[in-house]
Amino acid sequence: METLIMHPPNKEHTQALKAIAKAWKIRVETSPYDPAFVAMVKKAEKRGNYKELDPNNIGRNSNCRLYPVCLPRLSDLRNLAKAIP
């Protein structure tokens, strides 16, 4: 078994491919991401114009220029939660 990724040129072809898959009982998955967003990420990857972040250390990241507001530390959130009655 192999996985095929198809890029139909228009909505008519997309509907035809889905109808064939349904008739043949083939599972179809669609991307949850906006195609414009995916294209932007792929372009940035090609240019090397991106920064990888450690998801376990994102609140303590010293380079907050990626976000309009720096994310708070988990300990700060816990202290804030304790202060709320």
Structure description:
InterPro entries: Uncharacterised_MJ1172 (IPR020271). It holds the Pfam family DUF2683. With 85 residues, the protein is mainly alpha-helical. It contains three helices and no strands. The mean pLDDT is 77.
Features:
single chain
Describe this structure in a few short sentences.
It holds the Pfam family DUF2683. The chain is mainly alpha-helical and 85 residues long.
Number of strands: 0
Helical content class: 40-55%
Q: Largest sheet, described in full?
A: none
Q: What radius of gyration results from the CA coordinates?
A: 21 Å
Given the C-alpha coordinates, what overall shape results?
elongated
Query: What is the H/E order?
Result: HHH
Mean pLDDT across residues: 77
Number of helices: 3
Enumerate the spans where pLDDT stays under 50 for 5 or more consecutive residues. none
Category from helices, strands and their pairing: mainly alpha
> What fraction of residues sit in β-strands?
under 5%
| CA(first)-CA(last) distance | 57 Å
What is the secondary structure topology, with strand pairs?
Elements: H1 11-23, H2 35-47, H3 74-83
Pfam families: DUF2683 (PF10884)
InterPro entries: Uncharacterised_MJ1172
